[in-house]
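We close this part of the discussion by returning to an individual protein. The amino acid sequence and the backbone structure tokens for this protein are reproduced below:
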Amino acid sequence: MPVLEHGDVKIRYDEYGAGFPVLLFAPGGQQSSVGFWEHTPWNPIEHLSPHYRVIAMDQRNAGGSTAPVRASDGWHSYMEDHLALLDALGIEKCHLLGMCIGGPFIVQLAESVPDRIGAAVVLQTIGLDGNRELFHGTFDAWAARLSDQHPEADANDWKGFRSNLYDGPNTLYSVADDVVPRLTTPMLAFLGNDEPHPASASRFLAAHAPNTQLVEQWKEPEHHAAARSAIEAFLADHTP
């Protein structure tokens, strides 16, 4: 896989297919990397690459991507990586498709650079619903595994990074709740149904973002074909 270097960050990514670009954000929390798509109910690399230019990436400090850890890091740090990758690939506008932590990535981009997004598919976004300690725990476990690789980071750096991600009051973490009604990007949201992906977060997005449709049944095998068709039709409707 090729590697993008911007500043002191290295982002590993790959491309599949040709056509209008679709940037993917894999599940896995801070471990979000391309390989996670192999274990999801619907693999966008497999199903979209015959029709689109699909770009899959490892997020910073996941898979083959690396970045220093600083107390000032947060959701904006990930967005800087996403925009740097699009710029390096010469992509002015694309669709987005993300699962899990991909939800906050998508709404942050929808707030910050709406003109660069055609449409977005949000599969079981993470969200705040009495589960903050769960996210603290998963972040801390990830940090413990990586700490030896980051001599530049002390306990305050890890704590600051975690706090910037997960200590705010916002349902979707990366944007304020009162921003969501102002998001104009067409979105197709797929319902979550467990502690890290509470149904309330998907319903909040669908209820408040004006151009968002909600799909409630999609994970079970009997719903896979219909969900795949819904995604394909939705993206086709918004592809230039």
In short: DSSP finds seven helices and eight strands in the chain. The helical segments are 44-48, 75-88, 102-112, 132-146, 155-166, 199-208, 221-237. The first helix runs from residue 44 to 48. The longest strand covers residues 9-16.
